[in-house]
TrEMBL record:
Domain of life assignment: Bacteria
Keyword Transport on entry: yes
Record InterPro entries: AAA+_ATPase, ABC_SmlMolc_Importer, ABC_transporter-like_ATP-bd, ABC_transporter-like_CS, Mo/tungstate-bd_C_term_dom, P-loop_NTPase, Transp-assoc_OB_typ2
PANTHER family in alphabetical order: SPERMIDINE/PUTRESCINE IMPORT ATP-BINDING PROTEIN POTA, SPERMIDINE_PUTRESCINE IMPORT ATP-BINDING PROTEIN POTA
Annotated protein name in UniProt: Spermidine/putrescine ABC transporter ATP-binding protein
Domain ABC transporter: 4-240
GO molecular function: ABC-type transporter activity; ATP binding; ATP hydrolysis activity
The UniProt record lists the keyword Transport: yes
Family: Belongs to the ABC transporter superfamily.
GO cellular component, one term: ATP-binding cassette (ABC) transporter complex
Keywords, alphabetical: ATP-binding, Nucleotide-binding, Transport
Pfam families: ABC_tran (PF00005), TOBE_2 (PF08402)
Amino acid sequence: MAGLILRTVTKRFADAAAPAVDAVSLDVAHGEFLAILGPSGCGKTTLLRLVAGFERPGAGEIRLGDRLVADGRTHVPPEDRHVGIVFQSYALWPHMTVGENVGYPLRTRGVRGAEYRSRVAAALDVVGLGSAVDRRPASLSGGQRQRVALARCLAMAPDLVLLDEPLANLDVHLKASLLDEFQEFRARTGATMLYITHDQSEAMALADRIAVMNQGRVEQVAAPETLYHAPATAFVADFIGRGGVVAATVPQRADQGRALIEIAGHRAFVRAVPEQAAGRALVCLRPEDLALADDGLPARCRRARYQGGEWLVDVTVEGQEGRPLQLLAKPGTVPEPGTPVRVRISDGWVIPG
Ligand code: ADP
Ligand code: MG
């Protein structure tokens, strides 16, 4: 059974110059954890609201499992979509206990008695808060409150769980521990999940696949490693991971996924799509693709930041000052900002787009 299918889904708000969601197509498999990653304002929340049924698409269609829930004529209301939602703000009722908060959507649907109690208890157990059932939200930490919100969503046994930046309000340490919990929670429920975030480390840590959004469009949908090593566009290359993009010449067609590139008279072999043609191209270079070396490409050190263990050094190639690259250097080998350096390219990726 399919989890969620979007076909050229478009949403333009009245008076907006461009659509907030622009012809987005996605296939999320049953049980898959898909992250939607992109900068603020790129349309992530709007996409989630379309899937939940709070917005109607201007064009395209949405299917949940084998049900058509939205197209030009159809609009299944949110309460009939069997979708659970967890927001960044936990949206808990302060005057209710944890158990009452978790049970609230069940009560509104007429679930009572033993079934009510067992579903509330089971949902709280999944998030490790079984003993907090009679406490008030105010007595819980931010991370615990987010887990209550998660339990409330789970109690409904939704076919699909939508999470909109659920960790955005938490500090870095809490975030890390909740990331672990999300992974366990996922393994226990097996629910299909759409997880929205602007934080690439969250998306990378959790998702089977990531859809990268930019200005309402999905630029690439792929496993985290593929996005990192073989970005489809310059936007994805810049947005995912460290490193940068430079302009190069590809003197001849790629051969078996390897391409020769030339930058300022220096040559290197990098990865490319098998059909990569000769011509001008942008090349994605990650820090591990570069090293300081006396026979390398002329560049200049811009700045260096200590990362714990190693330094991350920003360099620019001559003539491409607007395109910073990054490499790693051991303490004691870090160049001074402003000084000339030479950089050897040992790997990279010709961006096909
Ligand atoms: P994200 O969640 O990625 O930050 P949003 O989906 O919230 O992005 O917003 C995408 C675009 O749509 C933004 O330009 C935003 O201003 C606009 N937008 C979102 N909701 C509305 C609305 N209800 N009315 C008008 N414009 C909206
Ligand atoms: Mg948002």
